[in-house]
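Predict structure. Chain length: 281.
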Amino acid sequence: MSVPTITRRLLPLAMAAFLLATFAGSTVAGTAVVAEPSATGSGEAASSASSPDGLVTRTNNKRRDRGLIVVREDPDLAAIARDRARVMAQNNVMSHTEPDGRNVFDRIRSAGITWYGAGEIIAWNGYSGQKASVKAVINAWMNSSGHRAIMLSSGYNYVGYGMAVSSSGKRYFAGVFAKEPDETGARAKLGSVSKTSVDTARTRVKINWSGKDPRLQVLTAGFGKFEIQRRRIGGDWQSWGTTTATSKAVTWSKDYDYEFRVRARDKRGNWGKWKVIRVNL
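Prediction complete.
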């Protein structure tokens, strides 16, 4: 079955205004596509908006296939995308412009997000099942040059998706892509632990770890440093400070077991999750 497509393009003057507002040449006003017009009602409420599983994964699969870096999901962009989808579902109208005249760029500014360029893709279809609906909308976007250009852009590093169902059963989708400063925490990974008996009361322990800053399509901050802590089992965490080293040797009493943890920070100050290991003596 062919998939009808509706494409919205800004006039050059309007496009220039968007570019000026974002101080970057990568801003795209977005295009729109109807993925599958043969709708069947689902009975879901139009006010119920979500960020469906599968949209980010399918988008990134397409990007990997073409040698691009994955876009990271941004909760703030996802919240905007959910609101955009909800407005379309409530009004049962697919449009980049909301009834009050606002658009996605207005919402990004109102959210206080630092951004250098952005694009929006929208769609609706009538599939009653979410999995089939998600697959169909990704395929439709990829078959449209305007949407595909946004999804596969080398200028964006973050994305948020939203979906809402209208009273007539149409599933409305919005995808918001943006070029933002790195806000993804650096990652720490625990390595080997070696133990050498010093005497009947003490053990020399060496703990190894590593870290990296996940690469973004653009504006990767770069790895900064680690924070390391230790404690006796059941006790409070004690700081060993911050370091760029990737190992620590310490002599501990055999009367206790211990835990060690490490986390990493990038050069913009984004911390990753703690990684914890237990050392039994």
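Summary: The chain has a mean pLDDT of 85.
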